[in-house]
Amino acid sequence: DTEVTQTPKHLVMGMTNKKSLKCEQHMGHRAMYWYKQKAKKPPELMFVYSYEKLSINESVPSRFSPECPNSSLLNLHLHALQPEDSALYLCASSQAWRSSTDTQYFGPGTRLTVL
Amino acid sequence: AQTVTQSQPEMSVQEAETVTLSCTYDTSESNYYLFWYKQPPSRQMILVIRQEAYKQQNATENRFSVNFQKAAKSFSLKISDSQLGDTAMYFCAFMKANQAGTALIFGKGTTLSVSS
What we know:
heterodimer; A: globular; B: mainly beta; six-stranded mixed β-sheet; 0% helix
C-alpha cells in the first residue's frame, strides 16, 4: 500500500485566519515532505522532515509552520497568509533519507484559497 | 547544478496510438533514480515508472516504458496503446541527495491530451 492521505481536500481562508493542513502515511516511511504547487507548474519543495526532525526548510516564510508529531503524521500550520499563497499543497513520504535511490509517494493534495 | 529539462510543453495523441515524452537531465552523480510522475486533472501525483541509473535494462510498467540513455543523460517515456485516462501532466524528476537530505528535481512538465 502506497497511500498518503491529506485533509482537508479544499480550504478557503481569510488573511487573518489560522488553519492547519494534515498529512498521514502508514507505510513506515521516515521522511515526509511538504510541496507547494501552482497551476501547470511543477511542485516546489517547502519542508522535509526526517525521523520527525526538520531537515530542510527551503526559505519558506514564517507564516507557514510545519510540525511532525510522530513518524506517521505531518502538519502544516497556516497563519496570516497572503492571496499569492493560494495553491495546491502536496504532502509526500519516502522510506529513506539522503539516498538518491529513494522514491517519494504523494498524497492527493489540499487546494488552498486565500481571500 | 542538477537540472531536468522537458522540451515539450504540450502533446496530443489519439487513443491506441503510441507517444513518447522526452526528458534530459544533468548531474555529476553516478547512481541515482529517475522518475516519471503523472498528475491527472484530478491532481493526485502518481508514480508511473522509475529507473535506477546503474541498471542498463530499461524499466517497463505495463503500457509505460522508458528509453534510458545514461551517456546522453536522456530519459524518455513511451506510452503504448494510449487511453483517455492517460490525459494528464507528466513530470520527469531526478532524485538529488546530499548531507541535508533528498529532494526531487522536477522538469517543467508535459501536458498530454489523449482524444478519441
